[in-house]
């Protein structure tokens, strides 16, 4: 390399370091504040929803509790900030929240144009349709001329437009600002069909006065990889959020649960020792203690545990693991190793 080339590289590296230093403050500010600010859905059963005692519950909620466990050794140090679909990304951009964990689809435009980075996929979803059984329709292809309730500010609107155009059928969009309004719209007969992410259809169906009269059509018309996101320009914080999810997935794969994690201490298995921070310190690169992964599992649980409790068989939704099973079980949940 020429001297000039080297200088240019050095300048670029220095600039990059300066830039990331200027912005790489999230972990520090979270620690100073003593609290993580986590943006969530205001009421989506299974993902984020306050229970009857006002305690937040859900898969997206537990991801934030996992981050708080890693940082503070206390999953309670999270302030949950409810956000609707339109507000969510702005709240992240403006610094109102440290992490967005709100059934948000990872798309290229959101990832590259909005100053945010998705850290992974904590729920593989797809868009579907919920109809009133009395409509007598068995396939989405038979929905020609239907009125469809849709929520604005979501990926849903474009998917429906694409699907109907591709299939040469027409529809009328009935657009609302909140998901409750879309449910009321279906109930009041303002639309024949409600469309949203399939996981959300399960949750929204429970809000109908007669849930048994509504049925989901078999078609899944899009990929909706849902995951947490953080602001761009803060790699350390990006890593903390990314590896919280990966630790949960790795723990499930290794058979480490909330109940047995303590008994795994002192194991001869090198992977286990690394995971628990017994030999090497894989926390320091993220500004976390060596037992960061242990803290997450001990206080929140592995991915399978939080899945089953919130959206799976231990919940009202009873969603199958499906695509969200571990890769070793034919699913897509796969985490790079901790080493
Ligand atoms: N995954 C889609 C849809 C997410 C979404 O916001 N869905 C609606 C429909 S259930 C929702 O959560 N609404 C609740 C609210 O805005 O309060 C996206 O990221 O755009």
From TrEMBL:
It comes from the Bacteria. Keywords: Signal, Transport. One of its GO terms (biological process) is amino acid transport. Belongs to the bacterial solute-binding protein 3 family. Residues 1-24 form the signal peptide. Residues 35-264 form the Solute-binding protein family 3/N-terminal domain. Gene3D superfamilies: Periplasmic binding protein-like II. This is Amino acid ABC transporter substrate-binding protein.
């Amino acid at each position: 390399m020429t001297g000039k080339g080297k200088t240019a590289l050095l300048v670029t590296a220095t600039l990059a370091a300066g830039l990331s230093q200027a912005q790489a403050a999230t972990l520090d500010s979270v620690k100073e504040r003593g609290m993580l600010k986590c943006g969530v859905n205001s009421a989506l059963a299974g993902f984020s929803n306050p229970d009857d005692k006002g305690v937040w519950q859900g898969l997206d909620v537990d991801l934030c509790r996992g981050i708080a466990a890693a940082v503070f050794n206390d999953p309670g140090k999270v302030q949950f900030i409810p956000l609707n679909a339109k507000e969510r990304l702005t709240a992240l951009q403006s610094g109102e929240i440290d992490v967005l964990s709100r059934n948000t689809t990872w798309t290229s435009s959101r990832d590259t144009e909005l100053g945010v980075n998705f850290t992974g996929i904590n729920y593989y979803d797809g868009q579907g349709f919920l109809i009133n059984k009395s409509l007598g329709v068995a396939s989405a292809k038979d929905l020609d001329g239907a009125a469809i309730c849709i929520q604005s500010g979501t990926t849903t609107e474009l998917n429906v437009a694409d699907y109907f155009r591709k299939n040469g059928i027409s529809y009328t969009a009935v657009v609302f600002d909140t998901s409750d309004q879309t449910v009321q719209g279906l109930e009041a007969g303002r639309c024949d069909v409600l469309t949203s992410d399939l996981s959300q259809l399960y949750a929204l169906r429970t809000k109908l006065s007669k849930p048994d009269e509504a049925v989901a059509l078999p078609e899944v018309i899009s990929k909706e990889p849902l995951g947490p996101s953080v602001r761009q320009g803060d790699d350390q914080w990006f890593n903390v959020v990314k590896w919280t999810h990966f630790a949960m997935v790795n723990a499930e794969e290794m058979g480490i649960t909330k109940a047995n994690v303590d008994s795994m201490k002192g194991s001869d298995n090198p992977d286990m020792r690394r995971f628990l921070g017994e030999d090497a310190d894989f926390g320091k690169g993220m500004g976390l203690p060596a037992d960061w992964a242990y803290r997450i599992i001990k206080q929140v649980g592995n991915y399978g545990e939080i899945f089953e409790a919130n959206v799976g068989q231990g919940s009202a939704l009873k969603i199958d693991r499906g695509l969200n099973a571990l890769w070793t079980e034919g699913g897509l949940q796969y985490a790079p190793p901790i080493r």
